Amino acid sequence: MKIGILGAGHIGQALARLLAEAGHDVGLSNSRGPETLQDLTERLGHGIRAYSSEDAARFGELVIETVPFGHYNDLPTAQLNGKIVIDTANYYPERDGQIDLGGLSESAFMARHLGGARVVKAFNAIQAAHLESQGDVSQPLEERRAIPIASDDDEAKAVVSRLIEEIGFAPVDNGNLEQSKTQQPGTPIYGREATAAKARELLGLH
């Protein structure tokens, strides 16, 4: 699958490497332009290419959005129309400034902003270092580190769940985008190392 990644911070880099190692065609972008990513993409290897944000969004059949939440207005919305978009962002008011979410979850707010994108919330409750090191495809699903996932689009959620399994984690269905409030910062699952069964308990899914 062609996967575009918007944002080359720690989470973006980790997902680029893991997904490229799993056999996907990955394009990485940042806000400063592809020429600033050449050293990074060479270091990551696996054929990962550097793009502008618009070109990464255009390139990806699926796009991962991993820019700071406060920069949501910088996302290339036109190029994301109709595509599965994994939203990894968390809203930190002290970093992002005051943003009126209108009572929505962070990802429901993002989905409203992006309009035609098929938004899936995932990878927001795990540290980049753990994403880099804790995936293990040799383990049974129920023994792997859990990744909560939420979306209003069941088909998109299934596609992202398969990607999570491919890089050695266990997807845990956390319902729709509004339900993703239970995986945001400050919730019991946030940053917690948990198997799928424990994650369901922490998310209140039992």
Describe the 3D structure.
This protein has 206 residues and is α/β, with parallel strands linked by helices. The protein has one domain (2-202): 3-Layer(aba) Sandwich (Rossmann fold), CATH 3.40.50. Helices cover 33% and strands 17% of the residues. It has helices spanning 10-21, 38-44, 53-59, 77-80, 93-96, 106-114, 128-133, 154-166, 196-202; strands at 2-6, 25-29, 49-51, 62-65, 84-87, 118-121, 146-151, 170-173. An 8-stranded mixed beta sheet has the order 3-2-1-4-5-6-7-8, with helices on both faces. Strand 4 (62-65), helix 4 and strand 5 form a beta-alpha-beta unit. The model has no long low-confidence stretch (mean pLDDT 96).
Give the strand order, joined by hyphens, for the main sheet.
3-2-1-4-5-6-7-8
What is the terminal separation in angstroms? Answer: 34 Å
| CATH homologous superfamily placement | NAD(P)-binding Rossmann-like Domain
The CATH class, by name, is: Alpha Beta
Task: Provide the residue-averaged pLDDT.
Answer: 96
What is the quaternary state of this protein? single chain
Instruction: Compute the number of structural domains.
Output: 1
Number of helices, counting only DSSP H or I runs of 4 residues or more: 9
Task: Please tally the β strands and state the result.
Answer: 8
Radius of gyration: 16 Å
| Morphology | globular
